[in-house]
Structures are given as C-alpha cells and as structure tokens.
Amino acid sequence: MPIHVAITRKVLPGKEKEFKDALRNFLGESFAQSGVQGAGMITSLHGEDSNEIGILRTFADAAERDAFYNSKQFKAWEAYASTLTAPPVYRQLNGLEAWFRSPVPPPRWKMAIATLCGVFPTSVFLSYTVAPLIKTLPSLVRQLIFAACMVALLTWVVMPVVIKLLRNWLQPAK
Fold first, then answer.
1. Which stretch of DSSP H or E encloses residue 9?
2. Which residues on neighbouring strands pair with residue 53, listed in sequence order?
3. Which has the closest alpha carbon to 103: 153, 31, 50?
4. Residue 16, Cβ neighbours under 10 Å: how many?
C-alpha cells in the first residue's frame, strides 16, 4: 500500500530561490530511487511572502520509504537543505488525508463531505455505465470490478477535481 509523507520546511530569509532550485533538482533526481512513486513541491501563491515550502512524497511501501530516507542521496540532501531551512516537520498521511495532500489537512468533517461529493456521483455514474456490462458475472466479481473502477476514478480523476473545486472551502485563507 502506498505511503504518503508531507514535509514542511521554513526557508531562511534570502535563501528562497536557492532552496526552490535545489529542491526541484533533488525531487527529479530522487525518482532514480526504487520505490519513489511521486514527489512534489507546494509553494505559496505568487505575490505572497510565505517562506514555508511543502513537499509531498509517495512511496511504494514502508520499506521503500525507509530505504529512501536512509539513503546516501537523501542524507546528502538533508545536510545541504538544513543550511537553507529551519528543521523540517514530517507527517505521514493516512486514509482520507492522502487525497487532501497538503502540509496541514482540512478538518476530517470537511474531508468527509468532499469525499461524499466525489463518491456519490461516481457511484451513480458507474451504476449506469459499468453495472449493466457486468450484470451477468458472479456477485463477488461484480463487486470487485465496481470497487476497482470506483477507486481508480476517485484516485486519478474525480477527487483531484473535487479538491480543486473545493480548495478555498477546504483550506480557507489565513
């Protein structure tokens, strides 16, 4: 099962460009590590003066996560990055938080409502499109296919759109 980690770093004044450039390079290079499935940087909106940078990483599993964080490549990065930032804050994202990939997730009740906004229309859509095509299959096979379609659509299509549409409500401006 994939592991998602959110890292927040506060960049020292005057080091923002250097850190962002170095982080972009490191994120790209890190994909050479086995088990690294995703990496991204979250910065403040253009024009805001925040020195906080979010980093989101996805690993194949806990063993791959641990191997990455114990690698020479990561330790060299960490030594360099620590000269440009305050100590980082690491958080492993679990359950619904993994869809709401931000350094500070919204309240669980908002995540639940946003998830319902994705699950309900997706289940209606699948009941009209996929269900008729698999109605002659055994019940467990139908349920497995339906669930697989639901998870795939939610993960790669529906929830990214829902999160984008509800962004201001999920994470109101401070």
1. strand 3-10
2. 9
3. 50
4. 18
Query: How far apart, in whole angstroms, are the C-alpha atoms of residue 22 and residue 109?
Result: 37
What pLDDT is recorded for position 56? Answer: 82
Position 105, amino acid: P
Coil, strand or helix at 107: coil
pLDDT of residue 100: 59
Name residue 146's amino acid: F
**Whether this model's pTM surpasses 0.90:** no
In DSSP notation, 32-61 reads TSTTEEEEEEE-PPTT----EEEEEEEESS
- Please choose, from the candidates 91, 77, 95, the residue with its C-alpha nearest in 3D space to the C-alpha of residue 159: 95
Angle in degrees, CA 61, 63, 67, rounded to 5: 120
As a whole number of angstroms, the distance between CA 73 and CA 54 comes to: 20
Which residue did the predictor score with more confidence, 143 or 151? 143
Which single residue is written with the structure tokens 């795939």? 152
Is the pLDDT at 95 greater than 70? The verdict is no
User: Which residues contact residue 22 at a Cβ distance below 8 angstroms, ignoring those fewer than 6 apart?
Assistant: 80, 81, 84
Q: How far apart are CA 129 and CA 133, in angstroms?
A: 7
d(CA 30, CA 107): 31
Lowest mean pLDDT among 64-68, 108-112, 117-121: 108-112
